[in-house]
Amino acid sequence: MKALWISMLAAGTLLTGCSQKISMGNMPSVVQNGLKSQFPNAVNLEWEKNGDLFEAEFDVNQQEYAALVDATGKVVAVKQEIDATQLPAPIQQQIQTSHQDYALDDAEKVERNGQVFYQVELQKTMSELKQVYTAEGASSPEAFWD
């Protein structure tokens, strides 16, 4: 019985750590306004609560974006899907040199704390690799933002 209780507690803890979808009607207006001030042309908005932050997924001019917004309405990070050709040359070279067995599946530009990072998903048979790079092509300790 004690083992069952511990298992239920652990499962509950894991579930509360997950993100939750939020309808527009339940979003704090200050958070919505913070995003709209930076992205007035955002369409197809979807919101999730992720810990202390709100994550918005949206489109601008048919380009996919995501943004993390704090409870005060400050946009703290932005992720933009980009074409592989938009990756800086040093990153393209790094991928070709270090991961020649992989195919580039997805590329994104991330802006956080005044810095720009690029994250890529690389795939080969039965394997996926997620990497974050600086614009200079160096591996970054920045966490991959899914």
Question: Can you characterise this structure?
Answer:
It is a single chain. The protein has 146 residues and is of the alpha+beta class. Helices cover 24% and strands 42% of the residues. It is built from 3 helices and 8 strands; from the N terminus they run H-E-H-E-E-E-E-H-E-E-E. The protein is elongated. Residues 1-16 have low confidence and may be disordered.
Task: Sketch the topology as an H/E string, one letter per element.
Answer: HEHEEEEHEEE
The major sheet is characterized as: 8 strands, antiparallel
Structural class, please?
Answer: alpha+beta
Mean pLDDT: 88
Helices, by number, come to 3
| Global outline | elongated
Seen as an oligomer or otherwise, the chain set is single chain
Number of strands: 8
Beta-strand level of the residues, as a percent range? 35-45%
The poorly predicted ranges are 1-16
Q: Give the % helix.
A: 10-25%
- Structural Rg: 18 Å
Descriptive terms for the model:
146 residues; alpha+beta; eight-stranded antiparallel β-sheet; 3 helices; elongated; disordered N terminus
Give a concise summary.
The chain is of the alpha+beta class and 146 residues long. It contains three helices and eight strands; from the N terminus they run αβαββββαβββ. It is elongated, with a radius of gyration of 18 Å.
